[in-house]
Design a protein that fits this description.
Layout (H helix, E strand, L loop, with lengths): L1 H18 L3 H12 L20 H8 L7 H5 L14 H6 L28 H12 L11 H11 E2 L15 E11 L4 E8 L7 E9 L4 E9 L1 H7 L4 E2 L3 H10 E7 L3 E4 L4 E5 L4 E9 L6 E14 L5 E2 L1 E6 L9 E2 L5 E8 L5 E10 L4 E9 L5 E6 L21 E11 L4 E8 L6 E2 L10 E7 L18 E3 L6 E8 L3 E9 L4 E10 L2 E8 L8 E9 L2 E9 L3
Parallel strand pairs: 1-11, 9-12
Antiparallel strand pairs: 2-11, 3-6, 3-10, 4-8, 4-9, 4-11, 5-7, 5-10, 13-22, 14-21, 15-20, 16-19, 16-22, 17-18, 17-20, 23-24, 24-27, 25-26, 25-28, 28-29
């Protein structure tokens, strides 16, 4: 009996010691078993990388250490770049097609292990290395759920989102960013935030953002984050349910864009987001897994298309308004079982803003979300957003879909006097027995409005748009306030746009100069130009070719 007891204790010790291994210790064990035999040991190890030493010495040779391969050095890779598997030369070496976008390129050498396929790594082992890097390449602690990944690669996984071509592969300027993969258990939910440094060589203007999301995404949000915030959060994904994460997000980050599904966000002609060279991003993916049996491999991608800073675009700005302002935790939904409506006024004294798009955001207790212009006395004015509309605001579906709220786009941009501003109004219904507090996850509630706007109307377009027609379009026509002029130049052209009255007298030259190839849009305010009601004519002269169009101005 004593021998049996000793044997059980020994088994328990061995099991406990194995399961207590840190993720790095497991990665280190793979190197010892697969890499040190023929290549990465001895006096002249391959790539000048000796993996046969102690755990501590191998760690120092890997993490944030420069490789010796010239192509990898030129690309700015480290052997292991914490948080960035696609900037980690070690990961590219062992990738073996796990991530098609991260396979070796010409001049980057051969795959590892060199004796492949004799010492081939199982996908589960390659994933272990990738997850170790994604979660910060730490020398202690467990970075992932090993049982979840084992089940994923042994019959219970839904394949992760396929990567789109990068802007470079498409022959365009820009970069691609990636989140994940992060694995999600059946019936699970997560919301992760991760700092991303695009490492831009110079400041740029962003004209398009194309998001590709996994199935069952609740949202994908792009933010900028200060250096202090990036340092505080680190490179590993941070759990949104963590209170400290929520505080850091609200304190250090600024909203840039939000997607509920895969979609291309193409900014209006003549506008762009300004992205500074050293500006860091904060990626935010919120996922549900509605399957009761399968594990999701959750990856999200975004192609960011750019043009040089100073190309002439008006800055498209982004912001959000959260109930409670800097204290979103003020939102509390009482358990009455009855509709509960709260309002959130939003002003910016001294500004006129031209809104491009706007959308609402609640969680599962949200039943409606409406938006109104605000009168000078603080009361609700004209309604401009109805929460019952579908996700692209094309029809009223009769109910509010919190998982896919409507995104309303204004063409032309909607001018708002922000001295008066807006009123956002959300209605909830809490049928539980407890008050529902604010939370970034759907276990609690939110009241947020996201929007994008400019402080001036764009005069010319610099987006890479090519059309053959130079026809002048004037809309809306008739107009009470703002009308738009739209035309296209085929190549770089001298352009003059003049405004004439009904008796043929020129009132004003609206534009005179060189415009680059592409589509161009101007926004004319009848009040700023002091245009009385009547008929006017737009003369568009493109390198000697004259087009004339009539515009009818109505009483305001």
């Amino acid at each position: 009996m004593k021998k049996l007891y000793s044997f059980v204790v020994l088994l328990f010790f061995v099991y406990a010691n194995t399961t207590a291994q840190s993720t790095y210790q497991q990665v280190y064990a793979i190197f010892q078993a697969k890499c040190t035999g023929a290549c990465h040991a001895g006096a002249l190890p391959s790539g000048n990388l000796d993996l046969s030493g102690s755990e501590d010495s191998v760690y120092l040779r890997l993490v944030n250490a420069a490789p010796v391969n010239p192509a990898a050095v030129t690309a700015g890779y480290k052997r292991v770049s914490p948080g960035y598997p696609f900037r980690s030369f070690l990961m590219k070496k062992v990738n073996h097609g796990l991530d098609p976008q991260n396979d070796l390129l010409p001049l980057e050498g051969n795959t590892m292990p060199m004796t492949y396929p004799a010492d081939t790594l199982a996908k589960e082992q390659v994933e272990l290395i990738r997850q170790w890097i994604i979660w910060g390449a730490k020398d202690t602690g467990t970075a992932y759920n090993s049982a979840l990944i084992h089940d994923y690669y042994n019959g219970s996984g839904v394949e992760e989102t396929t990567a789109p071509l990068t802007p470079a592969q498409e022959g365009r300027e820009g970069y691609q960013l990636k989140f994940g993969p992060v694995f999600l258990q059946p019936q699970g939910e997560f919301e992760y935030f991760q700092v991303y440094d695009p490492k831009l060589p110079a400041s740029v203007e962003v004209t398009e953002m194309h998001a590709k999301l996994p199935p069952n995404s609740h949202h994908w949000v792009l933010r900028t984050i200060s250096q202090a915030g990036a340092t505080a959060m680190g490179v590993a994904p941070q759990e949104g349910a963590n209170f400290n994460t929520q505080i850091q997000v609200f304190q250090y980050s600024k909203f840039k864009g939000i997607w509920q599904f895969s979609d291309d966000l193409i900014l209006p002609a003549g506008t762009a987001h300004y992205q500074q060279q050293n500006e860091q991003l904060l990626l935010n993916l919120h996922m549900h897994n509605y399957s009761s049996t399968q594990i999701l491999g959750c990856s999200a991608y975004m192609n960011v298309y750019t043009q040089p800073m100073g190309s002439g675009a008006v800055e498209m700005k982004t912001d959000l308004s959260s109930y409670g302002g800097q204290n979103p935790f003020a939102l509390q939904i009482p358990p009455t079982g009855q509709p509960y409506t709260v309002q959130n006024p939003y002003t910016a004294p001294g500004e006129t803003r031209y809104f491009w798009n706007i959308q609402s955001h609640t969680h599962q207790w949200g039943k409606d979300f409406d938006m109104f212009l605000r009168n000078s006395d603080g009361t609700k004015g004209a309604q401009f957003y109805e929460g019952f509309y579908n996700e692209d605001y094309s029809f009223n579906q009769g109910y509010y879909d919190y998982a896919h709220p409507a995104v309303k786009t204004f063409d032309p941009l909607m001018a708002v006097n922000m001295d008066n501003g807006m009123i956002f109004e959300a209605t909830y219904q809490n049928n539980t027995a407890a008050t529902i507090p604010f939370s970034l996850t759907t276990q609690g509630e939110m009241f947020v409005t996201y929007f994008q706007y400019t402080n001036e109307l764009p005069a010319t377009a610099v987006n890479n748009v090519t059309e053959n027609s130079a026809a002048l379009q004037v809309y809306p026509n008739p107009s009470k306030d703002i009308f738009n002029l739209s035309y296209t130049t085929d190549g770089n052209k001298d352009v003059t746009v003049d405004l004439y009255n009904s008796v043929g007298a020129k009132i004003k030259t609206l534009f005179n100069g060189l415009q680059i190839n592409g589509k161009h849009t101007m926004h004319i305010s009848t009040s700023e130009e002091n245009l009385a009601a009547g008929i006017y004519f737009i003369h568009l002269n493109i390198s000697g070719n004259l087009t004339i169009s009539k515009i009818v101005v109505m009483n305001r």
